[in-house]
Design a protein that fits this description.
43% of the residues lie in helices and 18% in strands. The chain is globular, with a radius of gyration of 17 Å. It is α/β, with parallel strands linked by helices and 255 residues long. The strands form two sheets. The chain has an eight-stranded mixed sheet, sandwiched between helices.
Length: 255
């Protein structure tokens, strides 16, 4: 049986479409989110198109650190092949006006949950051939967006952490690859949660944007590539692949 792709934030948007793409490749999927009804809809959609693919639903709030570790313990008996850390949300406005509780939750989800899951996955699978971790950053992780400053900073963390992890894995001769993709504006429910609204009119905020399916296609392009970084061009909305973007200092790495 094919291995499993563990995909967080899979109830809608990029995570939903990415799960469909992995299923199309014949890879079983473990789909994770807070909304059980939407996860079931995704499972049904996969079953209708790819009946031989196993779909495992895990209803989890990953903003709670204990839940992250419990999730991994719950799924580690599956043969994991891919981890896609997609769960996350943003926040807009000045630092002075920020909702502290929302910011704390965002930090827990965007940084802490991603780091914990990635670390546990690497510990168990770094020497397994064909394994990959794909972390979702943002173009806001490669240039500072002052309108969403704290969110942008979380995505800088994701980008730097993942790029550094891939260098570390390669220097050790590990089989696993770590990759990061940085979407530009993409039509998902991201803006709803970021702005604390419903049914956000994307055309009012962006003159152009990718669809979630287009972004999922970009993720699969990166997955199949020998490159390690995918950044969506803000002007053209096309994917550009790189070996590395940030300078990496390996001093002391062999200690």
């Amino acid at each position: 049986m094919a291995g499993y792709a563990l995909i967080t934030g899979a109830s809608s948007g990029i995570g939903y479409e990415t799960a469909l793409k992995f299923a199309a490749k014949g890879q079983n999927v473990i789909i994770v989110a807070r909304n059980e009804e939407k996860l079931q809809q995704l499972k049904d959609a996969i079953a209708a198109q790819y009946p031989n693919v196993d779909v495992v639903i895990k209803v989890v709030d990953l903003a709670q650190a204990n839940n992250v570790k419990a999730l991994y313990e719950d799924v580690k008996h599956y043969s994991l092949q891919t981890l896609v850390n997609n769960a996350g949300f943003g926040d807009f406005g000045s630092v002075k006006d920020a909702d502290i509780n929302k910011i704390q939750t965002m930090l827990h989800l965007n940084i802490e949950a991603l780091t914990i899951l990635t670390t546990l996955f690497v510990k168990d699978y770094e020497n397994v051939e064909g394994t990959q971790v794909i972390n979702i950053s943002s173009v806001g992780g490669y240039e500072i967006y002052t309108a969403a400053l704290t969110y942008s900073a979380t995505k800088y963390y994701v980008a730097a952490y993942t790029e550094g992890l891939d260098v570390q894995l390669r220097d050790k001769g590990a089989n696993m690859r770590a990759k990061v993709i940085a979407p530009s504006s993409t039509k998902t429910s991201f803006m709803d949660r970021s702005l604390d609204t419903e049914d956000t009119d994307y055309d009012a905020y962006f003159d152009r944007y990718n669809t979630s399916e287009e972004l999922a296609d970009y993720i699969m392009t990166l997955y199949d590539s020998d490159k390690h970084i995918g950044i969506v061009d803000d002007d053209t909305l096309e994917l550009k692949l790189y070996d590395h973007f940030y300078p990496v200092n390996t001093f002391g790495a062999d200690q």
